[in-house]
Amino acid sequence: MSATPASATPASGAPSSPEVPRAPLVVEFPFTRSLGPVQSAFLTGLRERTVLGVRTTGGRVLVPPVEYDPETSEEIGDLVEVGTTGTVTTWAWNPDPRRGQPLRTPFAWVLVRLDGADTGLLHALDASGPDAVRTGMRVRVRWAAERGGSITDIACFEPYRDGPESGAESGPESGGEGSPGRGSESGAEHRDDDPAEHRGPGNGTGSGTGSGTGRATRSGTGSGTRSTEPATPGAEGRAATGPRSHSGEFDDPVTGVVVPARLDYTYTPGRAQTRFISALAERRTTGERCPSCRKVYVPPRGACPTCGVATSEQVEVGPRGTVTTFCIVNIKAKNLDIEVPYVYAHIALDGADLPLHGRIAGIPYDRVRMGLRVEPVWTGDDRHPDHYRPTGEPDADYDTYRELL
Amino acid sequence: MRDVAIVAFSQTDHVRSSEEVSEVEMLMPVLHDVLGRTGLRTGDIGFTCSGSCDYLAGRAFSFTMALDGVGAWPPIPESHVEMDGAWALYEAWVKLLTGEADTALVYAYGKSSPGSVRDVLTRQLDPYYLAPLWPDSVALAALQAQALIDSGETDEPALAAIAERSRTAAEGNPHAQLRGPRPQGGYVVRPLRTGDCPPVGDGAAAVVLAAGDRARELCPRPAWIRGMDHRVEPHALGVRDLTDSPSTRLAAERAGVHERPVDTAELHAPFTSQEVVLRKALRLGDSVAVNPSGGALAANPVMAAGLIRVGEAAAAVHRGASGRALAHATSGPCLQQNLVAVLEGEPHAR
């Protein structure tokens, strides 16, 4: 009960009361999500080291792509391939990477407008320090060695000086473009990169939101008149020709993603439940009485749900009680070491005005009935009742518990 | 259309950790206080609406537990938004405007102390392109701050001045978590320093709304809601101009902010840089008192901080400190969603 995981942030400066029980609470979920045609093409493309965007009817190229135009809400699906190099439009230096973030060493968060795109892609930039990052700087994709169709197939971005490439993209996988027919052109991009070619806003429609700062900085590093002109058709290289149509078709497309999520909490139960838990450790079951309607709630949660006032008067209830209603469980729950079928019941402890939940054992499942008198069987460590078993008393009269159903 | 007013407001003292109490235990005194200010009991309330977030609690349907503090028997008309309570207030306002109820109780609460709110808030992001990268709330705000600095609209000293002004103002707010100026500190995520970021804390707030003569009965100087509107930006951050807030601008226009000058503005700007964006979008002049409560930089209980802005604006009207106040609430990264309300202390001239 007292373990606090290192990842849970304790209250800074707040003295923690020693009597507050606490326990780690980990919420972990693999969210399984299906992809529409546009997201499927984009994420499959990343697996194949190809970045796809979508062109709106207004001519803007959105990267990452979406299925509906954020301005007009039209359904869109006109896929285009954009560059794997781009320009930082804003950034933030992250000195202390957190769990799950793309890099373990300090890095910059960046919005990158890839060559040919009109919008920014959020990712990490691997740079030596904040002095090595600026808005307007040129960057390129660093692909993850293992790619399966997710945004993390881009390991991160890295600084990129426009010019003849020494080794194409990066690492041992460079050179092997996944899609025939695009490989040579992609290669051309790397061989023929001219510093000026990347300065234009892609297809000439990139003068919209968010481009002002980047453009200003780029003009400082660009080379003359071409720096602010839209790319010219017929020029060499991907960026110069702007985004090119792409079918979005790949072998073995990715149609879904599994997104694991984990959050760590330190659970504390509050005053009323703390009192309840503390009493359980002494094999006592306590309820709390509402000062207004006089009902006794077990387990108490600190408030009377009928009157909306705090409960505080402690009332010891049970240990015996009456089964008010029950069900027979036939499906084994994961990680639950109880043979099925078993009985789960509402049990009105003597003196309580609200039944609590409990498992019934010590009697064949098909012999459990409404009115059965039961008593708790405690766990070996005395922390709480493990289950309830018959007391052997005669069944309770229906009228004694009918109000508690 | 009926006139609807905020007739009472209450909030907790906001603290770094309220681990000794459960959500409902934290909330109940606020509910009792706000009802006590009007003399109403739960059974008198026509509609109840709340705002909170399961991801903060780490538990599904966590708001149902908090509902125990309201007294929901005999059955009451009730609703909940998985958002800041300002949006619950919007829902209640509509309910009163349509005549379905004459009074409403709106409350909101958030306990950030059980988890790490920077991690928790990553789960509100697009699950395909953003959430797998775990960009935290400070990082996203920092991207916005850098865009503002690059555009020449602010710089680090100006941001520090916003932090200092806010926390100095909070010296007069007994509920605030950070009262009085403090060092800007080091970078959390550059260019944002500790002082540019809101405190992490727990807290709750509640307001009571009433329509027409009912409001006049319940409050000597009701804060009449003259207009309220909320708008949203495209969810993809890279599509937006982070230096601007068109949604705030439009919401303000639709809420009628510019029909007459406001004297007070409670802005929900958890980060100093966001105040720069909001001031521009709302065209606030220097004569407007911005965040006399200290704002979210002094106390930012997630899911309640926006409702508190509306409540603080209403309270300023109640005590005669404001004749016409603007309240703003935000939700989501980099001012993604924005709500603007206009409150006045005088009877509506028709």
TrEMBL record, chain A:
Domain ChsH2 C-terminal OB-fold: 80-143, 315-378
Location of the region described as Disordered in the Swiss-Prot/TrEMBL record: 1-21, 155-254
Swiss-Prot/TrEMBL keywords: DNA-binding
Top-level taxonomic group: Bacteria
GO MF annotations in UniProt: DNA binding
Biased composition (Basic and acidic residues): 187-200
Compositionally biased tracts (Low complexity): 1-17, 214-228
Domain ChsH2 rubredoxin-like zinc ribbon: 279-310
Gene3D superfamilies attached to this UniProt entry: 6.10.30.10
Pfam family, one: zf-ChsH2
Ranges of Gly residues composition bias in the record: 201-213
Protein's recorded name: DNA-binding protein
TrEMBL record, chain B:
Matches recorded under Gene3D superfamilies: 3.40.47.10
UniProt cross-references to InterPro entries, sorted A to Z: Thiolase, Thiolase-like
Domain of life assignment: Bacteria
Spans annotated as Disordered: 168-189
Matching NCBIfam families: PRK07937.1
PANTHER family named among the record's database cross-references: ACETYL-COA C-ACETYLTRANSFERASE, NON-SPECIFIC LIPID-TRANSFER PROTEIN-LIKE 2
Protein name per its UniProtKB record: Lipid-transfer protein
